[in-house]
Automatic annotation (TrEMBL):
PROSITE patterns named among the record's database cross-references: RT_POL
GO biological process, one term: proteolysis
Signal peptide: none
Originating species: Tanacetum cinerariifolium (Dalmatian daisy)
Keywords linked to the UniProt accession: Endonuclease, Hydrolase, Nuclease, Nucleotidyltransferase, Protease, RNA-directed DNA polymerase, Transferase
A Pfam match: RVT_1
MF-aspect GO terms: endonuclease activity; peptidase activity; RNA-directed DNA polymerase activity
Domain Reverse transcriptase: 104-283
Lineage of source species: Eukaryota, Viridiplantae, Streptophyta, Embryophyta, Tracheophyta
Stored InterPro entries: DNA/RNA_pol_sf, Rev_trsase/Diguanyl_cyclase, RNA-dir_DNA_polymerase, RT_dom
Protein name, per record: Putative reverse transcriptase domain-containing protein
């Protein structure tokens, strides 16, 4: 304690988080070391460990057809839209070639020869990697909007009253698990320096993509909505009153994902929580509150 530090004339170096203790012939330096949390393993998570195939390291190819296909309905008289590729930095060109190869290998994109073509740009993600984005703004102007009614956030959270155990499942490349209707594939085309491609799976950036994916997830989870599941696009929140109940609820949802061949990203999922952050709110046994991290002062 403090008496011991005074007795030994110790020096506290706050900036380095060190304590220097003078001894007879040398100085003992005590450092504060942050212990890295143990890496989570699928095999160690109750219930989850029985559904390893739902959490692959990556998507290896096209998912089977789902109950819903992504369709693009154009306004009457819409003509094919073509834009010249944007100028990219050398580092972005390298990333472009890499991501095009990955998407091609998985069957997510294929060569295109039809007169549609949006430009490509890159957005830097939080961890420093780059996400390839297609600038579909011009195509979106020509698309008839899907007025699918999204649920009110407060209505969703009303269902959580009395819950105390939570798990959050994030689907891996959720959009890419939904196929584009065959006749609409050419409309998704994009142009790059390395070729002209079109998407066989639903790409990011199209105006109706969130509504279509939400429709799919609501259809699949309809029997469980407002009972122990909340769905918002590609996020699934499972909630229960106790651990015994939660074990059964998790099993039901994972069996559903397994049956429908929908896959989740383990690193973005959280299980067996006594509170959860979801859609900008924190939920626990005391109720639902705005996530302090989302509040600016």
């Amino acid at each position: 304690g403090m008496d011991w530090l005074i007795l030994h004339d110790a020096i506290i170096v706050c900036g380095k988080k060190e304590v220097h203790v003078p001894l007879k012939k040398r100085t003992l330096v005590v450092k504060v070391v942050k212990k890295e949390p143990a890496e989570r393993r699928l095999e160690d998570v109750p219930v989850i460990c029985k559904f390893l195939d739902v959490f692959p390291e990556d998507l290896s190819g096209l998912s089977p057809p789902q109950q819903v296909e992504f369709e693009i309905e154009l306004v009457p008289g819409a003509a094919p839209m073509v834009r010249a590729p944007y100028r990219l930095a050398p580092s972005e060109m390298k990333e472009l070639a890499k991501q095009l190869q990955e998407l091609s290998d998985k069957g997510f994109i294929r060569p295109s020869s039809l007169p549609w073509g949006a430009p490509v740009l890159f957005v830097k993600k939080k961890e420093g990697s780059f996400r390839m984005c297609i600038d579909y703004r011009e195509l979106n102007k020509l698309t008839i909007k899907n007025h699918y009614l999204f649920p009110r956030i407060d209505d969703l959270f009303d269902q959580l009253q009395g819950s105390s155990v939570y798990s959050k499942i994030d689907l891996r490349f959720g959009y890419h698990q939904l196929r584009v209707r065959e006749k609409d594939i050419p409309i998704t085309a994009f142009r790059t320096r390395y070729g002209h491609y079109e998407f066989q799976v639903m790409p990011f950036g199209l105006t109706n993509a969130p509504a279509v994916f939400m429709d799919l997830m609501n259809r699949l989870c309809r029997s469980f909505l407002d009972k122990f599941v909340i769905v918002f696009i590609d996020d699934i929140l499972t909630y229960s009153k106790n651990k015994e109940e939660h074990e059964e609820h998790l099993r039901i949802i994972l069996e559903l994902l397994q049956k429908e061949k929908l896959y989740a990203k383990f690193s973005k999922c959280e299980f067996w929580l006594d509170f959860v952050k979801f859609l900008g709110y924190v939920t626990n046994t005391q109720g639902v509150h705005v996530d302090p991290a989302k509040v600016e002062f």
